[in-house]
Design brief:
Blueprint lengths: L1 E5 L3 H12 L3 E5 L3 H8 L10 H11 L2 E4 L11 E4 L14 H13 L4 E5 L7 H16 L5 E5 L9 H6 L4 E4 L3 H11 L9 E4 L1 H32 L3 H9 L20 H14 L5 H13 L2 H9 L8 E5 L14 H11 L3 E5 L4 H8 L4 E2 L3 H4 L5 E4 L11 H7 L4 E4 L6 H6 L3 E3 L4
Length: 437
């Protein structure tokens, strides 16, 4: 089978590479000529564990190709996956410009039956717009060529995307024809030989499933952050509370970790888009509005602690930051809490020293030279008055506190991910604060 993936961002590149890994011939298409040139040279534009090796292996085998022209490969493929960006507009709705552009390109150039699958996260009703755009271009040409549209939302976790794709807990596919269902079954069966977990449904339900899933996870995060903040006020320990409620099988333990808020490319964008979709249909998503509000406030919670602990006298203080990416095992800083915190500290006159295992270049691209980019985690704490842990990378889990104590000017540790033991840190001579205790 031959397929095309349009868009070589996070979703598109992982999707195309994993399909190539199981023997599919894949054309990865992107209008960004520099990105395609880099990929053809073996330079991977994103950080994802295991991805680089897989890309290089499949490109060398000839199963994975990169091109700027969908037109050049369109009539060689059976399926076109649209994995282009859907950035939020100013009003929070998803911008479908790139999605519709892909559809029009297909309609202008297809000469045989093609299954067009939307992989991007898109609002309910997008498939109808894709179908209409393709048909309009076919009508302009005076052609009557059969095609199908389908929805196949992704559920990849950054930092674990390869495993998620190669061994998915479920694959959601929205179709409207038996022909499309058979093609998608054939395509996904190699990933699920022992337990076929493709869930077929109508297209609007598939489109909604992606938003509903991310919104539920975002809700759990904001709920626990709200509980954590209340725990601090009443003298409770949020970790004990989390253990207590997580043991309830109706609730479970996942996504009940308090911290400094969610970020990344999915949760913030998808929550906003679902709120906007509801508004367009005359409905008010009150719970999700609260989820979003709690999350935005939570991003600043560590700065509020810092400011309070220094009695508002932050000018000239040196603050070390460990972790910049919104989560470990990625260099993604979209909507990262670190950006909010760094901005607040700089605005208050702090000197900020930062370190992240992989996100340093991305941070520099976003904020320039306004902070000191440390060589390693210990260089970051040199002469610092306080240390902030923002991303729970593994290398931060067991630091040499004795070395840190000698390197720092102060002794304040603010743990934004609750990864340290309070007693252990305080025994080393530090003042320790976390979330929800």
């Amino acid at each position: 089978m031959k397929i095309a993936i349009v868009g070589t961002g996070y979703v598109g590149l992982v999707t195309g590479t994993c399909f190539a890994e199981i023997g599919v011939d894949v054309y990865c298409v992107d209008t960004n000529a520099d990105k395609i040139e880099s990929l053809n040279k073996g330079i991977i534009p994103i950080y994802e564990p295991g991805l680089e090796e897989m890309v290089l292996r499949n490109a060398k085998s000839g199963r994975l190709k990169f091109t700027t022209s969908l037109e050049s490969c369109l009539n060689e493929v059976d399926v076109v996956f649209s994995a282009v960006g859907t950035p939020p507009d100013e009003d929070g709705s998803a911008d479908l410009t790139y999605v519709i552009n892909v559809a029009r390109t297909i309609g202008r150039n297809m000469n045989k039956y093609t299954l067009v699958v939307t992989k991007s996260t898109v609002p309910v009703g997008t498939a109808n717009k894709v179908r209409a755009a393709i048909q309009e271009e076919l009508d302009k040409r005076g052609e009557a060529i059969d095609f199908d549209v389908a929805s196949n939302p992704e559920f990849l976790k950054e930092g674990n995307a390869i495993a998620d794709f190669m061994s998915p807990d479920r694959v959601v596919v929205g179709v409207e024809s038996e022909r499309a269902e058979k093609i998608m079954t054939r395509l996904y069966k190699p990933f699920q030989l022992n337990n076929f977990r493709v869930i077929f449904m109508d297209i609007p339900s598939a489109e909604m499933t992606k938003y509903a899933a991310n919104s539920m996870l975002a809700t759990r995060i904001s709920f626990m952050n709200d509980i954590a903040n209340l725990c601090e006020l009443v003298g409770a320990d949020v970790n004990m509370v989390r253990s207590g409620i997580g043991s309830d099988t109706r609730i479970g333990r996942k996504f009940l970790y308090p911290g400094i808020g969610y970020g990344g490319s999915c949760f913030p964008k998808d929550v906003k888009a679902l709120i906007k979709t509801a508004q367009l249909h005359g409905y008010d998503m009150r719970v999700l509005k609260a989820v979003e509000d709690v999350n935005e406030k939570q991003k600043g919670i560590l700065f509020e602690k810092l400011n309070r602990l220094f009695a508002g006298e932050l000018k000239g203080k040196t603050i070390a930051v460990w972790g910049l990416a919104f989560k470990p095992e990625t260099d993604d800083m979209r909507e990262a809490p670190a950006l909010v915190l760094i901005h607040e500290m700089l605005k208050s006159g702090c000197n900020v020293r930062v370190y992240d295992p992989v996100a340093m270049n991305e941070c520099k691209r976003k904020i320039g030279d306004s902070v000191y980019f440390a060589k390693d985690m210990y260089d970051a704490v040199l002469d610092a008055d306080a240390l902030m842990l923002l991303t729970e990378w593994k290398e931060f889990r067991l630091p040499a506190w004795g070395v840190i104590e000698k390197a720092m000017n102060g002794n304040l540790v603010l743990d934004g991910r609750n990864i340290y033991d309070k007693k252990e840190v305080e025994e080393q001579g530090f003042i320790y604060h976390c979330i929800g205790k």
